Amino acid sequence: MTSKPRNRALGAQELDRFGEELDALRARTLAQVGRVDAAYIRRVVAAVRWFGLGGRLLLFAAAAGLAFGLGWLLWTAAVLGTLSLALSKILENMEVGHNVMHGQYDWMRDPHLDGKTYEWDIVATGDNWRKTHNYQHHTWTNVRGMDDDIGYGLLRLFPEQRWKPFFLAQPLIAVVFALLFEWGVAIQDLRLGRWLTGKTKHRAMWRKFVPVGRKMGKQLLKDYVLFPLLAGPFFLPVLLGNLVANLIRNVWTYTVIFCGHFTIDAEVFPKESVRNESRGHWYLRQLRGSSNLTGGKWMDLMTGNLSHQIEHHFYPDIPAWRYAAMAVEVREICGRYGQHYDTGSLPRQFGEVVWRILRHAWPSRPRARRPLVRAEAQA
């Protein structure tokens, strides 16, 4: 697979100017945030509610079709209901939950959109996500030993990761992880490996698991017990519809996130690289570890605007629907400083992710890369 253009190493003054230009774009955009942003997120919240309600009503209609022997109604309502519910869950997960928890709408002072307390519709707790994603991942993006999102402890996606025979199974593990992605996110902060090797005591693990287990139980009860029971003895279409909708949401979320972080030219960094890191250097690291997706407004909406992963890593607390407009200037700035702006279609970017999963299941060595920052800029 052909590699994309390489980044030009920057000197100290260029590095500072690069950071200043990107900071200035952030300031100009924040100055525009207001009523139009509030109206946008409220429309999305309404869409989540109506698609969810419509999906569940259609699944109940499918149950009625089963009760009265109307096969055509059963299959039509089941498919449409499942897709509508999946759409609701995707929008809630990506465009509402993820972005709200980044504090993008805290300025509205709406308790339902408070980034510090929002709880989303997956088995993972909001508090754990705010720790592992908002802080650890966004602060230490792609820094080995500091960003747990590098392979999520299951996959070897970069040659810099030490190879173990376990990784030979990762093509299969990757498929299972995609289907159960919300569960992987839910247990990420538990660090089960430390518990299994005795580094974390049982009592400490139990304390960490209690809120996670409570959230898991709540989600399982809602989707697989309460709503199916409302259909009485004809619960099966409702149960299966909820299950498939969650699987669709999981696979889509996994695909979008992996395309944003694990394409061919995405890089990882040693801990030493962030010592005394300047603002400009931080931006370069975010750029070098991120990739965008093309596809227009519908792709932006369905990905929670993580189709603009570069802009999201630069500006995680700015309302994400603004990333498309910001991307025009971000790309121009990157071009002027000789920095590659990685973007491509979903099939192409995900193809590169699949290549990484397959290639690095086997032993591999890091390839030589031109330094991003000139030596005097790192001193």
From TrEMBL:
Any single GO CC term annotated in Swiss-Prot or TrEMBL for this entry: membrane
The entry's keywords: Membrane, Oxidoreductase, Transmembrane, Transmembrane helix
InterPro entries in alphabetical order: FA_desaturase_dom, Fatty_acid_desaturase
GO molecular function: oxidoreductase activity, acting on paired donors, with oxidation of a pair of donors resulting in the reduction of molecular oxygen to two molecules of water
EC numbers for this chain: 1.14.19.-
Transmembrane segments: 57-75, 166-186, 224-245
Every Fatty acid desaturase domain range: 75-343
UniProt GO BP: lipid metabolic process
Pfam families listed in its UniProt record: FA_desaturase (PF00487)
Keyword Oxidoreductase recorded: yes
PANTHER family the UniProt entry points to: ACYL-COA DELTA-9-DESATURASE, DESB, FATTY ACID DESATURASE 2
Designated name of the protein: Acyl-CoA desaturase
Annotated organism of origin: Lysobacter firmicutimachus
